[in-house]
Amino acid sequence: GTSTSFDLAFSPDGKHLVAALAYGGLISWKRGDGLAEEARQPMESHIARWAAFLPDGTLAAVAWRDSLRLYQGASLTPLDTLSAEVHAAAFTREGLFAAGTEKGALLWRPGSPPTAVGAPGPAWAVAFSPDGGTLAYAVDEKIRLLHLASETEWTCQERVDGGVRTLEFSP
């Protein structure tokens, strides 16, 4: 059967491509003369929504409303899982993850418990500033910026009708 691809990610070395395939989980291919399938990782009928490689080649994936899952590169060997209703995820170059969850934004360093940060409520979008020092997230149809070191937060007073689904910092 075929699956809708929600996200694609190339490995840092450009040799592998991974797709988050709706109800198909994750699939990876290796580049050569073409693309050859390398590995598959089913996700127990949950929707795979996001895939991204960390600079070290480790792959992260979000299974919709289930968890943030971390895999060892394109082999898709499971490494760690953050169990939460995850809507979105982002990471810093140092391996700190932000997860937008049903209850708010979480910060998570694999191997450690997650920490809730900022305002409570469904967080549908998260992003880190290029230096990793500020987290942008959206709760209650408002965009919020949280400076991690000082825990200072700024909130955009304008509501975004329909909510915010993606956030991105300018380089």
Unreliable segments of 5+ consecutive residues: none
Structure classification:
mainly beta
Strand order of the largest sheet: 1-2-3-4
Largest sheet: 4 strands, antiparallel
| Helix content bin | under 10%
Strand content: over 45%
Q: What best-fitting shape do the alpha-carbon axes yield?
A: globular
Number of strands: 16
Distance between the termini: 39 Å
If you average the pLDDT, what whole number results?
A: 89
Q: Tell me the series of helices and strands, N- to C-terminal.
A: EEEEEEEEEEEEEEEE
How many distinct helices?
Answer: 0
Radius of gyration: 16 Å
Would you mind describing this structure in some detail?
This protein is mainly beta and 171 residues long. The protein has no helices and 16 strands. Strands 1-2-3-4 form a four-stranded antiparallel sheet, with no helix packed on it.
What characteristics describe this protein?
16 strands; four-stranded antiparallel β-sheet; 171 residues; mainly beta
Write the layout of secondary structure elements.
Elements: E1 5-10, E2 16-21, E3 25-31, E4 35-41, E5 48-53, E6 59-63, E7 67-72, E8 77-83, E9 86-91, E10 97-101, E11 104-108, E12 115-120, E13 126-128, E14 134-139, E15 142-147, E16 152-155
Antiparallel strand pairs: 1-2, 2-3, 3-4, 5-6, 6-7, 7-8, 9-10, 10-11, 11-12, 13-14, 14-15, 15-16
Brief sketch in words of this structure:
The chain is an all-beta fold and 171 residues long. It has no helices and 16 strands. The strands form four sheets. A four-stranded antiparallel β-sheet has the order 1-2-3-4, with no helix packed on it.
